[in-house]
Amino acid sequence: MLDSTQNIQVFQYTPSSILVQFTTEINENLLQFMLNFKQLIQQKRSQQLHQVINTYNSLLITYKSTISNFYTEKQALLHLATQVEITRFKSGPLKQIPVCYDTELGWDLEVVSKTLKLSISEIIQKHSQPIYTVYFIGFLPGFPYVSGLDSSLYHRRKAQPRDKIPKGSVGLADTQTGIYPVDSPGGWQIIGRSPQPLFEIQNNIPMAFLKAGDRIQFQPISKAEFSQIEAEHASHTNSL
Amino acid sequence: MSLRFKSTGVFSSLQDKGRVGGSALGIPGSGAMDMEAFRLANSILGNPADAACIEFYRQGLEVEFSQKTCICLVAIDAALSLNQKPVHLNSVIKIKPGDVLKVERTNDGNWGYLAVKQGFSSEEILGSKSFYPPLTLRRFSSQDKVEYQAFDGEIEEYASNLGFSRPFASSLKVYKGPEFDQLSETLRYQLFEASFSLSTSQTRMAYSLHERLDNELEEMTTGPVLPGTVQYTPHGKMIVLMRDAQVTGGYPRILQLTEASINQLAQMRPKSKINFQLIEINSEKT
Fold first, then answer.
1. CA B67, CA B69: separation in Å to the nearest integer?
2. Distance of alpha carbon B212 from alpha carbon B86, whole angstroms
3. ipTM of the complex in this document
4. Residues of B with CB below 8 A from A14's CB?
5. First to last CA, chain A
């Protein structure tokens, strides 16, 4: 499906950036193709690039200077796309993310339970069973966009976003689930909280716990375990 | 050897050209809201182009210096005082220990830049000192201090009173955004023939427009966005992303402001009238 260039749109976004969009179905094969393509672009253009990022179905290539001839670069990128190795999805490591699904931390658990007509233990079971794939990091530093949410957990966002959702909160929004890496305003339905830091700065270097291609699974923990893990992280790192 | 904030005014932070390489971690580029004003402040002092400046929003900034140096303050139209005596914008101001600089009034524009000889010191993350939480502080608070090196030399005032005036223009130059082609003929007509006004919502992340256009576009899969991207919400609201914009977004990206138009918009106040002028990427002239 991706060996032809028909499913690829190359768009000049600004004088120094190009957006490559794929019109095929969003799945792990496309993710793998984009990650391979990204790597190839980074190899072939290492001196000219600021950065390349991927989302579900796009790559954004940011160049250090103005692109002198977009059509030449577009042809070059389409040609590079034909050279991308088509590999099966090579997932990154499976990372366990502890989550305390207590109503005291999962502010919207009861609301979600009512609207979805699922008991809280069914919600926990359906949320913690699947293995999710991380597609990219966006929205906030360290915030993972993942796929794999059980469709019985699809739930609308809150009509009125909250001013502050605490770091570590695990939420539902439409077809997505996610974890807030830092305190933030937000409209997601909060069903639990994780003590696992997702974004840290060590020696002035920012680091995200997750990256595109990683797989995660949520591991239910008690409130006592939550406090214990949180305290361990607080004493070992300067997590934010 | 530092500057102390007696008052930070509405909002002030440290800014430079911004950072690259953080997008894959969800970290925006940040940097000065008006890059042109920022560059002018440094160039008047003969500073490295990327020296960090204090960026402030409108009036009220009041700072005290502890060491000799030279400074320069660039803003669209503001009244300044040094030890309660008027001093000029856009020129070299000599500073001795204990001097107090105040931005008394801003008559026009939003963001001003206070540059010091050799720039302010602060820790760098991904090659930038620009404030962006959780990498750094969000903003300065009263009594905060920021370090600089003492400077006892002379600076030739070649640029004195050069002025920083942009020709007044309500027209913002834009390119087509990735979802532009999905707009109906009617919407395109409205987009370029109507004029819009800025709402009161002005942050380093985004400015929004007051008027709404009935939206016929479907939501899109979350994708990359950039400073200058005009997002079109399901309620027909238009949001122009600015320097601290998140790296991805889920609203259709209908237009993209030129770099010069981002700087221009940054300085426009709520209720200012704007209109969009569509240009081709390769025809941009600054």
1. 6
2. 43
3. 0.94
4. 175, 226, 228, 256, 259, 281
5. 42
**Position B153 in a domain:** no
Predicted confidence band at A237 (pLDDT cuts at 50, 70, 90)? low
Alpha carbon distance A113, A127 (integer Å):
13
pLDDT in tens, B152-163: 988 876 555 556
List, for residues A59-80, the tens digit of each pLDDT value.
999 999 999 999 999 999 999 9
Q: At what angle do helices B35-44 and B259-266 cross, to 10 degrees?
A: 90
Least CA distance to B132: which residue of chain A? A141
Q: CATH number for the domain including B266?
A: 2.40.100.10
Three-class SS of A56-101: CCEEEEEECCCCCCHHHHHHHHHHHHHCCCCCCCCCCCEEEEEEEC
Are residues B126 and B185 located together in one domain of the fold?
no
Question: Looking at the DSSP assignment, which residues form a beta bridge with residue A186?
Answer: A162
Considering only the beta carbons, identify the residue of A15, A53, A240 that sits closest to B281: A15
* Residues of chain B contacting residue A58, judged by C-beta atoms under 8 Å apart: 223-224
Q: Could you identify the residue written with the tokens 């920012």?
A: A206
Which two structure tokens, joined as six digits, stand for B124? 């760098």
CB atoms within 10 A of CB B193: 9
Number of residues that make up chain B: 286
In terms of phi and psi (left: phi > 0; alpha: psi -120 to 50; beta: otherwise), the region of B46 is left
The residue among B148, B179, B213 that closes a domain is: B148
| Sheet strands side by side (includes A17-22) | A8-14, A17-22, A58-63, A49-54
Q: For an interface test with B, which of A56, A60, A174, A176 has the most B Cβ atoms less than 10 Å from its Cβ? A: A60
Determine the Cα–Cα distance for residues A98 and A127; give it in Å rounded to an integer.
12
Q: How big is chain B by its Cα radius of gyration, in Å?
A: 20
Residue closest to B226 by CA, chosen among A9, A135, A50: A50
**Is B157 part of any domain?**
no
Based on the fold, state whether residues B30 and B122 are members of the same structural domain: yes
Q: Smallest Cα–Cα separation from A212: which of A147, A115, A119?
A: A147
C-alpha to C-alpha distance for B250 and B68, rounded to whole angstroms: 50
Instruction: Kindly list the structural domains of chain A, giving each domain's residue range(s) and its CATH number in brackets, ordered by start.
Output: 5-82 (3.30.1360.40), 94-236 (2.40.100.10)
**Nearest residue of chain A to residue B228 (CA atoms):** A14
Query: Which amino acid makes up residue B80?
Result: L
Cα B187 from Cα B255, distance rounded (Å)? 12
pTM (whole model) above 0.90: yes
